[in-house]
Specification:
Layout (H helix, E strand, L loop, with lengths): L1 E5 L5 E6 L5 E10 L2 E5 L4 E7 L3 E3 L9 E3 L1 E8 L5 E10 L9 E3 L4 E11 L6 E3 L2 E4 L9 E3 L3 E2 L11 E4 L5 E4 L7 H13 L4 E14 L4 E2 L3 E6 L3 E9 L2 H4 L3 E5 L23 E2 L5 E3 L3 E2 L1 E4 L4 E5 L3 E2 L1 E5 L10 E12 L2 E5 L3 E5 L3 E8 L10 E6 L3 E12 L6 E4 L2 E4 L6 H8 L3 E6 L6 E4 L6 E6 L8 E7 L2 E5 L4 E3 L1 E2 L2 E5 L2 E7 L6 E6 L3 E6 L3
Parallel strand pairs: 15-16, 25-28
Antiparallel strand pairs: 1-2, 1-22, 2-3, 3-21, 4-20, 5-10, 5-19, 5-21, 6-7, 8-9, 8-20, 10-11, 11-18, 12-13, 13-17, 14-18, 16-17, 23-24, 24-29, 26-27, 27-35, 29-34, 30-33, 30-35, 31-32, 31-34, 36-37, 38-48, 39-47, 40-46, 41-45, 41-48, 42-43, 42-47, 44-46, 45-46
């Protein structure tokens, strides 16, 4: 359980405890670059980094450049030479346009934005005109760097320049010998470079950042501590609290929030109003036993509106139910405005009715035999209602740590979740892939039955192996030899890792076929089945 103190200056600070029960107030200080810092043995060092790529030499096929990143590791050195080190096990890179990996030492968030592609000749390469291409592999069109080849912003207009780029389909396109010697010769060169220990390596921007949480701190030394190997260091200065220290502070306790999208920030469907049965803001299902009322995302929070003849039931199912059975859990909600009344419910056996603004919660033990289908936390209106919900929390135990009261105002204990991390969690249930007019989404070879699976690349692996497909806009297939026809698409799609296979029928057999749109729009891969 994280414990924070908020002072009269309004700043929240981490409070740490030791085995003797003493509490220490942690106040942050920030240093950039290698630093020698006045410290106490109770201080905690939280190094932060920004990735940086260093290119030594000029990339060329026969004399490759060396590209190095920043090792995310740090060493603390005491005045008498003692050392303490941490190594996070990853390296941060940057690209010429400023895109870079980052690590926040205080939050423990590593966000990878730069991908690394190591080629060895075993890839599936094809020849297109004078270039070699890996199709349907990467989904970004931006600056990139490579060890053996130069990046070409003009898409290799000069056929005599050996270089590479990513086209608007996300294909890696390479001009090695203008296609004259054939793809086998090109693959042999890649294999020889890999065997020599200098593989052709490309660094490019990921279409979707990948977020990790790896919190590792270094305990400081008494007197002074020198920190090396970090671009920035946050020092949490600690001292034992006395009664006088505590008087102007309020201790804030917080458990981990087990709900998905608890502040309703992620709204991949993109609507301003939801008033039909189905999923609305990510993770939340809307329905009614009568006419469906209205849910409006108003981040932070949502508005819920129902007339006399309407009802809103908004719920979230508990997915990993096997970890909940037999234990007490608390569901809490902060209401900042309400007319009318509604009910808060955890499972089907515990509920509380609400008619006034404020913080409400209830606790229930998840019973044996519970399943994802019948166990959820929900709120629903009773008669004419208009309310604003600022946030919710599902947590283990019998007490709520969603919010606290300061004077006559309720204040949320936890800051909003990191939107990058929360989006990645939500994308396990739903991914939205936009597409432009006439921009190919995927290209395949049609089988002998006139059907094909078009791979759609997703930013994360979804939780199930099947998904529902919704198309907003008009998809069409571009058949060999010219011309278009509309797709007859399956209603569901199979998933392999982070690839969604979208199936189409009625195509010209044994031909190359592309999938694109004449209207623009989006493909929604939805596991909220």
């Amino acid at each position: 359980m994280a414990i924070y103190a908020k002072g009269s200056d309004g700043i929240r600070r981490l409070v740490a405890g030791n085995s003797d029960g003493d509490m220490a107030l942690m106040s942050p200080r920030h240093y950039v670059g290698e630093a020698t810092i006045p410290t106490r043995a109770t201080d905690v060092l939280a190094p932060s980094w920004e990735g940086k790529s260093t290119v030594t030499g000029t990339p060329s096929p026969n004399n490759p450049a060396t590209i190095t990143g920043v090792s995310f590791a740090a060493t603390a050195i005491s005045p008498d030479g003692q050392t303490r080190s941490v190594d996070f096990g990853f390296t941060g890179y940057s690209l010429p346009d400023g895109v870079r990996d980052t690590y926040d030492g205080v939050r423990g968030d590593f966000v990878q934005r730069v991908g690394k592609l190591v080629l060895d000749g075993t890839e599936i390469w094809t020849t297109h005109s004078k270039f070699y291409v890996i199709e349907n592999t990467y989904k970004i069109y931006s600056q990139a760097i490579a060890t053996h080849l130069g990046f070409d912003d003009d898409e290799l207009d000069d056929i005599f320049v050996k270089g590479f780029y990513f086209n608007n389909l996300g294909w890696l396109v390479v001009n090695y010998d203008n296609g004259a010697e054939g793809v086998d010769n090109f693959k042999s060169w890649l294999a020889a470079q890999a065997a020599a220990g200098t593989p052709v390596t490309v660094y490019y921007e990921l279409a979707q950042p990948i977020a990790y949480n790896r919190k590792v701190d270094i305990t400081a030394f008494d007197g002074r501590t020198t920190v090396t190997g970090a671009d920035a260091v946050d020092v949490l200065e600690g001292r034992v609290l006395r009664v006088a220290d505590c008087l102007p502070f309020e201790i804030v306790r917080s458990n981990r929030n087990l709900a998905l999208n608890p502040y309703f920030e992620i709204n991949q469907r993109g609507l301003n109003t939801y008033n039909t049965t189905g999923y609305c803001v990510d993770g939340w299902h809307l329905w009614s036993t009568t006419n469906v009322g209205t849910v409006k995302p108003t981040y932070p929070g949502i508005d819920i509106i129902a007339d006399e003849n309407q009802q809103v039931v908004i719920e979230q199912k508990i997915e990993n139910i096997e970890h909940f059975i037999g234990y007490p859990y608390t569901f809490s909600i902060l209401i900042t405005r309400i007319t009318g009344h509604f009910t808060l419910q955890l499972t089907t056996v515990s509920e509380v009715r609400i008619t006034n603004p404020g913080l409400y919660y209830l606790t229930a033990i998840i019973p044996e035999g519970s399943t994802v289908q019948n166990t959820m936390f929900r709120l629903f209106t009773l008669g004419k209602t208009n309310l604003h919900c600022a946030g919710i929390k599902l947590e283990k135990g019998t007490e709520q740590t969603l919010a606290r009261k300061i004077g006559d105002q309720w204040v949320l204990n936890d800051p909003p979740p990191d939107p990058t991390l929360e989006l990645l969690k939500c994308q396990r249930y739903q991914c939205v892939i936009p597409f432009g007019v006439g921009q190919p989404i995927s290209n395949v070879i049609v089988d002998g039955n006139g059907s094909a699976y078009f791979p759609i690349y997703l930013p994360v692996q979804m939780r199930l192996d099947i998904a529902k497909i919704e198309i907003q806009g008009n998809l069409r297939t571009r058949i060999a030899g010219g011309g278009y026809r509309n797709c007859e698409l399956d209603g569901t799609a199979s998933l392999q890792a982070n690839i969604c296979n979208l199936r189409a029928y009625g195509l010209e057999t044994n031909t190359a076929c592309g999938l694109d749109s004449d209207t623009g729009g989006k493909i929604i891969v939805d596991e909220n089945l």
